[in-house]
Amino acid sequence: MRKKLLIFIPLTFFFIYPIRAQKKTATEPTPPKVVKQGENANTVRLALDSSVTTSNAVTIKGQRVPYTVTAGSMPVWDENGKPLAGVFYTYYERSDVKDLSTRPLVISFNGGPGSSSVWMEIGYTGPRMLKIDDEGYPIQPYGLRDNPHSILDVADIVYVDPVNTGFSRPADKEIPTTAFFGVNADIKYLAGWINTFVSRYKRWPSPKFLIGESYGTTRVSGLALELQNSQWMYLNGVILVSPTGLGIDRKGPVDVALSLPYFAATAWFHKKLPADLQSKDLTAMLPEVEAFTVNELIPALAKGGSLPEADRTAIAAKMARYSGLSQQFILQNNLEILPAAFWKELLRDKGFTVGRLDSRYLGIDRKDAGTEPDYYAELSHWLHAFTPAINMYLRDELRYKTDLKYYMLGPVSPWDRTNDHTGENLRQAMAQNPFLHVFVQSGYYDGACDYFNAKYNLWQMDAAGKLKGRLSWEGYRGGHMMYLRKEDLATSNQHLREFILKAIPGDKPAKY
User: Fold this and answer.
1) Can you name one GO molecular function term for this protein (predicted)?
2) What is the model's pLDDT at position 139?
3) Mean pLDDT of all residues belonging to the chain
């Protein structure tokens, strides 16, 4: 039986610190206040400052871990102390730890932009996870179960929903969306919010880590430097799950070529490679493709129309060997195969498309003809599984009461992508902070944020090779959300656990 513990702060428009969770049982939590907005009585919004706390326990690696979880909203403030938005969060704190000064805090974001933190909260690192099969496909009846691989045994976790994701909303419809919707605006206001969170929950002494998935990697890479420069908050680690390009320039031949190793991984999974490659294990086969990509394909694409015909034919033959596509198709596309064309073409003869975010998933289009899939099969499967689970979890299990729609993917357009230098921001943060380590996790079957582009990020961030000892990468046999595979859920969480513990320096000083 789960014991329930409540803290509720029914304040909407002004600032007050919440009382820390007390270890007592509340029979029925008082729900957060539903606040009507404007003249339309049917419009509701989140109370900007509210929370409800419950208690629970989970067994992780054979150990019982008791914890409290607070679901709530905390304001974002402007320079004049006026609330701009309410940012929804769920905060998991291990309850049998007396000294939080040495207890790591992980601040978790998902991507989009426009995505809530649902994916990693109930799919990856949290103590509760949705019911799916061993490969990540939805099953019914919907529901949740304990996550025996959660990192809550070694770190407390707060999952953050940026504005217009989850239950987070602007404080007023008159507030310009430019305050939130852009690479640098997003980083700026979330850094301020993190300061408020860390102050309220007394986590300034704790070792701190950021984890982001997909666009969340752009976010946390920028936050690493913004927290140092504007909030005077220094991190121990940044974890990039399925990272974006981080604003690192790769236009032209490099951009086109770097997808080939991902094509090879996907073709291997669907058994479309020649017998000699297909007989090798995935990770034994890929180095050959990676070497060809860097040493032959990029130089060939750079030559463009000046490439001799015999060389063009030879390059196309090798690309066909590694991608599962026909040599003719590759030549018809001038050696430049866009991912969307690959997703449509690879299994066209069988009447299927392959997924964008996870190419193990198959889709069915209206017509076999065409240049890109009608839809992305993996996202449909994931929304199918996650949406009922998160609504059941927050509203029923955590007892957060609101009539707001939970935005799995919220309206955040237009998004200002100018001046994205987040990869360089992360490098600067590492250079300035000798304690800061970076760990990258990639799925081999991710076609949106592919594994070889993630490796390229690390090469270009650390062109001088001076940070190699604090940069690490790991690959998994899933897609964008590699942790949905039962096998990878265990290994990827264990890698996180090891990274977090390794990045805490003990009594060592921060110096070169």
Assistant:
1) serine-type carboxypeptidase activity
2) 87
3) 91
DSSP strand E in 34-161: where? 35-36, 44-45, 50-60, 63-77, 83-94, 105-109, 128-130, 144-146, 156-161
Q: Select from 160, 187, 163 the least CA-distant residue to 45.
A: 163
128 Cβ partners below 8 Å, 6+ apart?
Answer: 56, 58, 122, 144, 145, 146, 147, 393, 397
Between CA 139 and CA 385 the distance in angstroms is 7
Amino acid identity, residue 499?
Answer: F
Closest Cα to residue 169, out of 177, 20, 286?
Answer: 177
Predicted local confidence at residue 12, as pLDDT: 31
Which residue has tokens 């990540």? 136
pLDDT at 381: 85
Asked whether the beta carbons of 56 and 67 are under 8 A apart, the reply is yes
CA quadruple 363, 367, 371, 373: dihedral, nearest 10: -20
What's the angle, vertex CA 384, arms to CA 362 and CA 373, rounded to 5?
35
What residue spans of 89-160 are helical by DSSP H?
Answer: 118-123
Residue 310 neighbours by CB under 8 Å, 6+ apart? none
Question: 315-327 in b/e burial notation, b at 16+ Cβ within 10 A?
Answer: bbebbbbbbbbeb
Q: Which residues pair with 354 in a beta bridge?
A: 362
The residue behind tokens 């059941």 is 392
Place of tokens 């509760």: 128
| pLDDT tens, residue by residue, 360-379 | 999 999 999 999 999 998 88
Q: What is the separation, in whole angstroms, between the first and last Cα of the chain? A: 51
Of 381, 339, 369, the closest CA to residue 356 belongs to 339
pLDDT at position 40: 36
Q: What DSSP state is assigned to residue 380?
A: H
C-beta separation of 122 from 390 below 8 A = yes
Strands (E), 395-489: 437-443, 471-476
- Spatial neighbors of 172 by CB under 8 A, at least 6 apart, are none
Domain map (residue ranges) of the chain: 35-248+384-502, 253-377
Q: How many CA atoms lie within 13 A of 426 on its CB side?
A: 34
Full-model pTM: 0.91
Q: Coil, strand or helix: which one is 138?
A: strand
Measured distance CA(472)–CA(452) in Å, rounded: 14
What's the pLDDT score for residue 44?
56
The verdict on domain 35-248+384-502 having CATH code 3.40.50.1370 is no
Assign 175 to helix, strand or coil. Answer: coil
Write the pLDDT tens digit of every residue in 136-157: 888 889 899 999 999 999 999 9
